[in-house]
Amino acid sequence: MPYEGLNKTVYEKTPDDRLLVDVIHRAVRRIKGTAGEPGAARGVKVINLSIGNSWQPFDRLLSPLARLLDWLAWECQILFIVSVGNQSQEIELSLDTPDISSLTDNEMISKTLEALRKDQFRRRPFSPAEALNVLTVGAIHADASEWNGSDRRIDLLKGARFPSPLSTIASGFNRSVKPDLFFPGGRQLYLQRPGNQIPPFFSVAASPQAPGLRVASPGVRPMELNRTVYSRGSSNATALATRTASLIHERLVSLRNEPGGDRLSDDYLPVLLKALLVHGASWGEAGDILDRVFGGTASEWRESFRLKSRFLGYGEVEPNRAIFSTDQRVVMLGWDSLLCDHAHRYSVPLPPSLSGKKVKRRLAVSLAWMSPLNPRHKNYRKASLWFSPEKEPLGLAKKDLDYDSSKRGTLQHQIFEGDKARAFGNGDMIGVKVNCVEDAGRLTESIPYAIAVTLEIAEPVDIRIFNEVRARIRPKVEITP
């Protein structure tokens, strides 16, 4: 509900006479139903929750609302897509002059990122973004609007495709990755505090004008039904993530008409959506920017990777990488349930036309699951799943997030790249093993999971691997009379 503060600024807040935890619990139960009542919309697989309690940033212990979302995600097998929250505090640049006009673009970017890192203690996810079973979304400093830079507003990141200055710089529970992924949230501009202060401070420029994402807005005149404004932040990014989930859902449903598609039951759609949403994520040029700015300050590679994960999570998502295959890109899916101390092995066929070729290749693997919870145990998450791929046949090396950080939540996403010529025979496979063990007390439940694997080669290359891989997968689909 809207609330007007003392300075006449309008805020959104929850009702004073109702607990937010209770409101959300009742709403989800009404949607999905209970043992005694049918749900109003039992077919719902995804819920967007673009809220954040700025008075309750994450601090080691999970908030009651985060625990509720984790429990509902497991009990109802539903995917919550949650915004990480916007950090609207001032940014202090380490400069001995208030004049920033002499800084180059790279110097401005470096000073801004150093200021964000220095302030990382305050830049933590807002409740309930720290929940483990949910997908948490942050905003990328990007949009398609036009801005000529002629006013007083300042782009501290100089147009770099990087997480917004509104973003968090933190980890989640037990050093898990938070936010998990990023979508465009609009370019957030800033205003310099007047008075020629040293060091200079910059505050958020709240404006309905470009740049930003163009969104619908209430009219200011009677019957004005077509008004739009420009806005920025993690709620915008979460809306785009939810739209992408809808497109992926449509694509998955269409696959039921393909051979083997009858095995794609509704029970596994939430974990498939979770895996595919992050499957197109990578650090891209943002990782290179961090290497340039902080490359000399990290004492070891592990510290450098952890710093990048706090800034970038799993990275910005390119939806097409998860939704569509091409001649040079093959997207493969698997899903099942695992008991404790069991494992499943998936075999990825190697295309013969790639044998002996010196061409850049990439293997992306994403694993997602929902875990039951043990709130009395320090580890909280009862089910720990992880994959272990065989990289040697293609001569691949790890890229982006480190292995340890990627195993601490309910989502593991890793990318492997290489360009060395490797010879292999027709019928050779790459194995990807999915493992399950208990993590917080005795695990008796069967854990539903989904795994997405993409094998891709760089373009332009006149090598078409899609049909070769598909031909080697289809015969393994059981045919019943």
Commentary on this structure:
This protein has helices spanning 20-32, 64-76, 105-118, 234-254, 269-279, 284-294, 301-312, 320-323, 466-473, and strands spanning 2-4, 10-12, 46-49, 53-57, 79-83, 91-92, 126-127, 135-140, 181-184, 190-192, 201-204, 213-216, 228-231, 281-282, 316-317, 329-338, 343-349, 361-369, 383-389, 397-399, 411-418, 429-438, 447-457. Among the domains are: 1-36, no CATH class; 324-476, Jelly Rolls (Sandwich), CATH 2.60.120. Strands 16-23-18-21-20 form a five-stranded antiparallel β-sheet. It is globular and about 70 Å long. With 481 residues, the protein is of the alpha+beta class. The longest helix is centred in the middle third of the chain and has 21 residues, at 234-254. Helix 1 runs parallel beside helix 2.
Question: What descriptors fit this protein?
Answer:
481 residues, alpha+beta, Jelly Rolls, globular
Number of helices: 9
**Rough shape?**
globular
From the alpha carbons, calculate the radius of gyration and give it in angstroms.
23 Å
Q: Strands across the major sheet, in which order?
A: 16-23-18-21-20
The CATH architecture term of the domain at 324-476 is: Sandwich
What structural class do the secondary elements suggest? alpha+beta
Q: Span from first to last CA?
A: 58 Å
Largest sheet: 5 strands, antiparallel
Task: Estimate the strand proportion.
Answer: 15-25%
CATH class of the domain at 324-476: Mainly Beta
- Give unreliable regions as ranges: none
Number of strand segments: 23
What is the percent of helical residues?
Answer: 10-25%
* pLDDT averaged over residues: 91
CATH topology label of the domain at 324-476 = Jelly Rolls
